[in-house]
Amino acid sequence: MKEIYKYICIIAVAAVFVSCNDDPKKPGYEYMPDMYRSPSYETNSMNPLFPDSMTERQPVAGTVARGNDVYTSFDRLPYPYAGDSLGYETAGKELHNPLEKTADNMTEGIRLYKNYCGECHGDKGMGDGPVTQHNGPKPPAYSSDQLKNLPEGKAFHTTQYGKNNMGSYASQLTASQRWEIIRYVQTMQHPDGTSAATDSTKKKITASK
Ligand code: HEC
User: I need a surface site. Which of 62, 144, 156, 190 has the fewest CB within 10 A?
Assistant: First the structure.
């Protein structure tokens, strides 16, 4: 029995000496290497399985981000109409303001309008903002024959893609902010408060009577 212990001790001491070496680049033997080196790919590592060699994959086309309650759900949905005249006409027929007609939405709409639109369209929507007095583009008044019956879907479409001398606001204002502004624009289409041909909420109320 004592002999066996002696041999075990000799082997153990020998193993200690043999398992170390002076070369810092050689790690020596690894017991169960899978425990040190996971076979799965790291997030940012090269990946031979995909043609673009990236492990981190893009979400599939059409994916809609979720989970940030700063945005309402429709702010995150892709805008469904193309930026051409067919898209403009279709938006005019199908697209309606999804926001409730509340005092809060109106107050915010007025604030945003003054910051983003009034410099051209003028505070009262007469198309006489300060930019127009310095050779800037002159928009028609909202209450003009050209715009007084403009459907809200077309107005929104114009804030999405822009129109002639007016640029797109899609990257500066969320969809809900633009709808808040359009609520205010509608009051300027009919400053006497008479008609709301372009106002979907009013229409819905009339229809349900
Ligand atoms: C740089 C000046 C400028 C700014 C800023 C501007 N607009 Fe305009 N807007 C115009 C001009 C010019 C037109 C006329 C476009 C045309 O029909 O040729 C126009 C047209 C419009 C129309 C009529 C669109 C249609 O379908 O005929 C709406 C509605 C409108 N603007 C809303 C807005 C809103 C809302 C904002 C702010 C988010 C805004 N505009 C900011 C210059 C501007």
Answer: 62
What is the whole-number distance in angstroms between the Cα of residue 171 and the centre of ligand 1? 15
**Protein residue whose Cα sits closest to atom 34 of ligand 1:** 117
Residue 197's pLDDT is: 52
Long-range contacts of 174-180 (CB under 8 A, 24+ apart): 174/71, 174/75, 175/72, 175/74, 175/75, 175/79, 176/71, 176/72, 176/74, 176/75, 176/98, 176/99, 177/108, 177/112, 179/97, 179/98, 179/99, 179/105, 180/99, 180/105, 180/106, 180/108, 180/109, 180/112
pLDDT tens, 107-155? 999 999 999 999 999 999 999 999 999 998 899 999 999 999 999 999 9
Distance, first Cα to last Cα, the chain: 104
